[in-house]
Write a structure and sequence with these properties.
Blueprint: H1 3-12, E1 15-17, E2 24-26, H2 35-42, H3 65-68, E3 78-79, E4 82-83, H4 86-97, H5 104-114, E5 122-125, H6 130-136, H7 140-152, E6 160-162, H8 174-181, E7 185-187, E8 195-203, H9 207-218, E9 223-231
Helix pairs in contact: 5-7
C-alpha cells in the first residue's frame, strides 16, 4: 500500500476501540465492532437445534425442557438473533453496565431482521426502576426498541413501569429470580386487545419477561411475543 493510500485510509477510518475486544482498530465512525469481532458475532447466530417456541437448545421437537417447565408462560413465541456468550455477552454487558449506548446498534439491527414483515400493535421495552435508569443514563431495552422502530416502523409504547427496585437478576441463583421480580412491574398505558412485542436485551431464566408478560396479559393484551438480542439457556434436552 502506498504512503498516500495509507494516509487516506487513516483519515477515512480513524482509530477507535472496539466495544468487544477493546483493542484500537481502524473502524468506520459510529461502528461498535471491529471487522474481526463482526465475524465472531456472526458465528454466534442462532441457527438450528433449537426449540421452535422459545429458541432454547434442544435435540428434539417442542416442548423442550424450558417450555415444559413453564419458561414461556404468557409468551406466545420468542425471537432472537444470537446466543448469549463471547461477543454478544461483552456487547450487552457494555450496553447495560458500561454506558456504551453504541453497543445497541449491531444488536438491534439484527433483532429487527428477526421480526421483519411481522405485524405487532406495539413494542414494549422491559422497564428499569427510575433510579437505575438515571444511573445508566438510558434504558437499554428502550434504546433497542428505538433502533428496531427505525427499521420496522413498529410503534414503541412505554406500557410498563417498574414499581420497585429489585436486586440485580444476574447476581441471584436461578431459583430466586422469579420471587425477586414478583410484583415489580405495573401497567402505565392501556394495552387492551393489542398484540405486543416485548423487548429486552437477553433472556436467561426468563423471570423478568414472564412477569412483564403476566402484567400485560391480565391487563387485556391479546398476545405477548418476546424479542431479545440473545438467548442464554444452557439446558439441553437429553
Amino acid at each position: 500500500m502506498s504512503l498516500l493510500l495509507k494516509k487516506a485510509v487513516n483519515l477515512l477510518l480513524p482509530q477507535a476501540r472496539c466495544l468487544a475486544c477493546d483493542e484500537p482498530r481502524r473502524m468506520t465512525p459510529g461502528e461498535a465492532l471491529c471487522t474481526e469481532c463482526q465475524i465472531k458475532l456472526e458465528q454466534l447466530r442462532i441457527r438450528e437445534n433449537v426449540c421452535d417456541h422459545c429458541l432454547s437448545p434442544t435435540r428434539f421437537n417442542t416442548p423442550c425442557a424450558y417450555c415444559a417447565q413453564g419458561g414461556m408462560v404468557g409468551i406466545r413465541r420468542a425471537y432472537a438473533p444470537y446466543v448469549y456468550r463471547d461477543i454478544t455477552q461483552k456487547l450487552i454487558v457494555r450496553l447495560k453496565f458500561g454506558g456504551a449506548a453504541l453497543a445497541a446498534k449491531p444488536l438491534a439491527d439484527e433483532m429487527a431482521l428477526c421480526v421483519s414483515g411481522m405485524r405487532f400493535d406495539a413494542m414494549v421495552p422491559v422497564p428499569l426502576y427510575k433510579t437505575q435508569e438515571r444511573e445508566r443514563g438510558f434504558n437499554q431495552s428502550r434504546l433497542l426498541c428505538d433502533i428496531i422502530h427505525e427499521h420496522t416502523g413498529i410503534p414503541v409504547l412505554n406500557a410498563l413501569q417498574k414499581m420497585k427496585k429489585t436486586v440485580r437478576q444476574s447476581s441471584l441463583p436461578p431459583e430466586k429470580r422469579t420471587k425477586n421480580v414478583q410484583g415489580a412491574f405495573g401497567l402505565a398505558i392501556p394495552v387492551t386487545g393489542m398484540e405486543i412485542l416485548l423487548v429486552d436485551d437477553v433472556r436467561t431464566t426468563g423471570a423478568s419477561v414472564r412477569e412483564c408478560a403476566r402484567v400485560l396479559m391480565i391487563s387485556g393484551a391479546e398476545a405477548v411475543y418476546l424479542l431479545t438480542a440473545a438467548i442464554a439457556n444452557p439446558r439441553r434436552n437429553a
